[in-house]
What we know:
Succinylglutamate desuccinylase / Aspartoacylase family protein; zinc ion binding; 19% strand; eight-stranded mixed sheet; two-stranded antiparallel ribbon; globular
Amino acid sequence: MTALERFHPIGTPGQPWTDADKAQWRASQVRQRSYADDVLGLIEGLRSTFDVQQYGELDYQADGRFPLFAVRTRDWQADLPVMLVTGGVHGYETSGVHGALQFLRQHGQDYTGRANLLVAPCISPWAYERIHRWNPDAIDPNRSFRADSRAGESAALMALVAPVREQVLMHIDLHETTDTDESEFRPALAARDGKPYEPGEIPDGFYLVDDSEHPQPDFQRAVIAAVEQVTHIAPADDNNEIIGSPVVAHGVIQYPLKKLGLCARVTDARYTTTTEVYPDSAHATPAQCNDAQVAAVRAAIDYALTHP
Length: 308
């Protein structure tokens, strides 16, 4: 047995986790911050200018109940396109949550009469509190946007967007890539699935994930250009890749979003992208990461409005 095979302390190397392993993993997850204080309090402050909709509730027994909220344009107009913004699919990716809320506070009303905004800022509140990637069942919500989803977080968002699915012109999903992806989450994934852990590299900087099945290169370039005014863009590695995927343009890689069950393809929006901010960079602050997410959202909406 190599050190890499035994990197993660839970489970038996080469064997997927049992229910007992998953229970052990869940018991090891410690609440480190408050969804109610950090997120719901900020959402409450938006009620004077937006409609706030509870679209579900997650009941995680001893860990508590978590209401799910979306923020919507107050004067919703059926003939306007819908701009969908999601954050916190992975609860530990902080700037995704707070960047979405900051965008609403600072710029949400800029689009009144031009577009309908639908923002779900914290899709995974249990994981937000525990600074983790998965939900308490050791399921990654961002691989679970499917009709038969076993992740309550993903199923709730799909139900939220179903009535307006055909109206969504643009969807931007706000994420982070962190050092803990490599130190904790990828080893845990390998252990959970009974596979060997293969070390990778963490890119230093911001990048985007386009849909390889429906690419929109000009849209991605517009978002990168806006974010580059706020923070640095991740360079390609020596293989011209970022996290193992070929770089197709400055700061842009591609995934087959629907095939992988990713949030950014929860609708058939013409314009989709997933942001990835690097908060552990020596060249970026938490505030700068939030600002980068805001710049990305604004650029995405502006591009979609001028290229309908």
